[in-house]
Amino acid sequence: MTLEKKEKSALNNFKLGNYKQAAGEYSNLLNNTDIQEDKYFYENKINLCNENHNLVTYLSEGEAFFPVYNEADKITAILSLKITNSPSGKKQYDISVVKEAVKIFLDDYLFREIKTVMVFDWMIDNLVAEIKFIPNSNEDFNRFVEGIGGRSFELAATVAIISKILDVKVSEKFIFSGSVEIDDGKIRIKRANRVEDKLKCVVLERPSTSKFFIPNNANIETDSLLSGINFLKELIPEIFPNFKEILHKKMFSDSTENKITLKLNDSNIKDGPDIIVFNFEHEKIEDCYISKIPRYLKNISSLIKGEKKGIVLDGLRASFLPTMLVSSQDVANQISNFIAVRYLAPDDKVYSKAAVVRTVNSGNPTLNVGDHFLYKIP
């Protein structure tokens, strides 16, 4: 390769953010010249490569690394995907499927693992995904980015959105490549192309990488960096080791505006059997979110299913919410005893009064529709 081609190769890598490769090429040029002026030039380029590399290997909340292969240029690079509600106008990705997958995953996780929280709205509808700028962004970089196709960015986008929600950074030691698919309520990780080329770039450009996450069905020889996964639920504990605690804290510490939280508390009827009180908490529900209520309320069926105790709904201040809940077929078909709604809090602040509004369709419920009773405030 001629000197001109070597310099051009180093410059191309520099322009695309492949700073480690560019630094290596400039080092070879430095070692093979006796011209002092050229030595100064190459040394400056090497220093700039190292400085820029330190900048691009830093992540903020809502960001994640993913490798890309540009078919037209036959070049691979590591990019940062950024989730933001203030886009810069540069290259953006369609993350509609990703956002839906995140909602489904988090809703399911809350009900399976925490069981005391119900999120009304994750506040991610207005988020967009775009490529994070590299230092000294240029037309070559922009053209390279625009030429990238495929859906292998989706796994990085999924992780980045969860990072944004939790306000917790994704480790710089992780890189992601794979598409996301909603499969019967489960979030499956699917195809990633050019894994071999991407792995080579990861090794060169991110030598500190500890895990390169790809779909488990990717056809590639085993490598110590590669970690194949089938479902998102396998990945989250590795990326966010304290995920359950972080999510629980996030749900209860943040403002409850446009969010319903649900706490399940044991209680009992005055001089009567034990019951479970569903304590709903929310500040307000804007009109634009009302259409989303059925989706979240129907998930309560998973908590009611098989529950032998009577259930009291407490805290649904909007008058239509209890009616919407108990009239839902998803809920009605799971009732094993009765559902009552609080309608009066006595002065003693120890007991509240509730009325039974729905009972099991067959069997022997503890109380009947229309019965009133006092229950102890949890």
Task: Kindly summarize this structure in a few lines.
The protein is an alpha/beta fold. It is built from 14 helices and 15 strands.
Highlighted features:
single chain; 378 residues; alpha/beta; six-stranded mixed sheet; four-stranded antiparallel sheet; 14 helices; 15 strands; 38% helix; elongated
Helices and strands in order, then pairings?
Blueprint: H1 3-15, H2 19-31, H3 36-56, E1 63-70, E2 75-84, E3 92-93, H4 96-114, E4 128-131, H5 139-146, H6 154-166, E5 174-176, E6 180-183, E7 186-189, H7 195-205, E8 211-215, E9 226-229, H8 232-239, H9 243-253, E10 261-268, E11 274-281, H10 287-290, H11 293-297, H12 301-304, E12 310-314, H13 320-327, H14 329-332, E13 338-344, E14 351-359, E15 372-376
Parallel strand pairs: 5-8, 8-9, 11-12, 12-13
Antiparallel strand pairs: 1-2, 2-4, 3-4, 6-7, 10-11, 13-14, 14-15
Helix pairs in contact: 1-2, 2-3, 4-6
What does this structure look like?
This protein has helices at residues 3-15, 19-31, 36-56, 96-114, 139-146, 154-166, 195-205, 232-239, 243-253, 287-290, 293-297, 301-304, 320-327, 329-332; strands at 63-70, 75-84, 92-93, 128-131, 174-176, 180-183, 186-189, 211-215, 226-229, 261-268, 274-281, 310-314, 338-344, 351-359, 372-376. It is of the alpha/beta class. It folds into three domains: 3-56, no CATH class; 63-245, Ribosomal Protein S5, domain 2, CATH 3.30.230; 255-376, no CATH class. It has a six-stranded mixed sheet, with no helix packed on it. It has a four-stranded antiparallel sheet with strand order 1-2-4-3. Strands 5-8-9 form a three-stranded parallel sheet, sandwiched between helices.
